[in-house]
Amino acid sequence: MSIAGGLPRAVDRAQASGCDALQIFTKSAGQWRARPLPFEEVALFRRRVRETGIRPVVAHNSYLINLAAASPTLRDQSFAALAEELDRAEALGLDGLVMHPGSFTSGAEEQGLDLIADALARLLQQRPRGRTRVLLEHTAGQGTNLGHRFEHLAYILDRLQGSPRVGVCLDTCHLLAAGYDICTVDGYAATFRRFNELIGLARIKVFHLNDSKKPCGSRVDRHEHIGKGCLGLEPFRMLLNDRRFAKLPMLLETPKLETAESRRRGDVDPWDARNLRILRKLIVQRP
Asked: Which end of the chain is more exposed for a tag (fewer CB within 10 A), N or C?
C-alpha cells in the first residue's frame, strides 16, 4: 500500500481494502535519502496497526540497495541504507524487511553471495536485540541478479549459520520466471520439495502473489494481475489451499490503477479489490 500522506494512511488503505496483512515502503523506493520519521507518526502508525488487527506488517527495502555491488563505495552506501531501513522497520514494530539479495557484475556468483552474507552478518551483529526479520526475496534472475536459485538462498543462510533472524519471501512471478514451473501439480510439488531439501519450508515467512507477464524460465520480472498471465489460476489455488502455508501472509504486488482520479475516489484501488476477490474465491473452506 502507498504511504502517500504519511505511514498511517497505508494502514487506512489496507483496512478499507479488506486486507489481512500489509506491505509498505518506509521511504521512497527509488531514493537513497529518507525523511526522518516523527515520533507522532510512528506512534499513530503503531496504534492503527493495533486497532485494525492487520498483521503481519512488513516493509520492502529500496530497489537501489545492492550488497553484492563490485564497487566498495556502492556496497558501503547500500549497507548504510539497509541499516537505516532495518532501524526504521524496527521503530515501526514491523515483522520483517523484504530485500532482494543483490546483483554481482564481476567475478563469480559465489563472491557476490559471500558479500551479501558478510554484510547481513555484520548488520545483525550490530543489532543483537533486533526483532524485525530480514526476509531474502527469491528473485526472477533478471540480468545479474542473485537469489534466483534456491541454492543461492541456501548458501547465504548457511554462511549466517541459519540465523533465525533471516527468513525467505517467495514470489510466484519470480518462481516461474526463474524456471520453477509451479503451474502443474507435479511441478508445484517438485518446487517445494526442492526448497524443503535445501532450505526448509519453515524458513518461508511471506509470499508475494503475482501473476507473470513472461513464461517459465524467461528470467524477466514482470508482474501481472491474478489469472491474467502465464501462471493462470491453478498455482494460486494450490498455494492458497496448501495446509503447510495456511498461516503465512500472502501479499499482492500487482499493478495499481495509478491515476489522480482513482486516488481522489478513495483508498480502495479497483485492481486490488479485483485481485483479492479472485484469490479469496479460490480458497476451499475447511470444516
From this structure: C
